[in-house]
Write a structure and sequence with these properties.
With about 180 residues, this protein is mostly beta strands. Helix content is about 15%, strand content about 55%. It has three helices and twelve strands, in the order H-H-E-H-E-E-E-E-E-E-E-E-E-E-E. The protein has a ten-stranded antiparallel barrel. A hairpin with a 3-residue loop joins strand 11 and strand 12. The two termini are about 25 Å apart. The model has no long low-confidence stretch (mean pLDDT about 90).
Length: about 180
């Protein structure tokens, strides 16, 4: 069985995640999820450039979202559809840092997940553009949380800030496994 980057990064804590988070972050089917999301952008030229460079979705108060995760022995590809806009990223586990490396277009981030009271927090600890490390004052900071709601759905509130508290992008909502059909 192939372990997902999140399974590898969390180690024994993966088994402590709520069921909806385990289902989403495991490499086991189903690997397609759907739900609803809200997307908010920061203002200014730096957020606009970063959003364009990362291929992030347009701002919206409510849109359909689907995420399809495909995995192989080295990495996972996450295809996110926000309405008709596709944002794709690749995630892999880095054994040297025990962290997750995620690449969105020209932007690469090092992520460190941590479980706290049933909530999965994901911190961005490093970032680069075109392989060039970003200085701390413009490097994104993450305020990202995932949890399971009362209906058993996977919920997310993913926010990235530039430098300190300058919003880059924030998307939040819920997902549930898509029904699988056989043909």
């Amino acid at each position: 069985m192939i372990q997902s980057p999140f399974q590898r990064a969390l180690g024994p804590d993966f088994a402590k995640l709520p069921a909806a988070l385990q289902r989403f972050h495991s490499s086991d089917p189903p690997c397609r999820f759907h739900g609803r999301a809200r997307v908010e952008h920061g203002r200014g030229i730096l957020p606009a450039i970063a959003i364009k460079s990362g291929g992030f979705p347009p701002q919206t108060t409510d849109t359909a979202i689907s995420i399809t995760v495909t995995s192989n022995s080295v990495s996972e590809t996450w295809e996110r559809m926000f309405g008709t806009h596709k944002t794709t990223s690749e995630l892999r586990y880095d054994t040297a840092t025990s962290a997750i490396i995620e690449r969105f277009g020209t932007v690469t981030c090092t992520l460190v997940p941590a479980l706290n009271d049933g909530v999965l927090n994901v911190a961005v600890v490093r970032a680069s553009v075109l392989g060039i490390p970003l200085p701390r004052f413009i490097s994104p900071r993450s305020d990202s949380r995932e949890w399971q709601d009362e209906q058993g759905r996977f919920c997310f509130d993913i926010a990235a800030y530039l430098g300190g508290d300058r919003l880059l992008i924030r998307y939040s909502g819920w997902l549930e496994p898509a029904l699988r059909t056989t043909s």
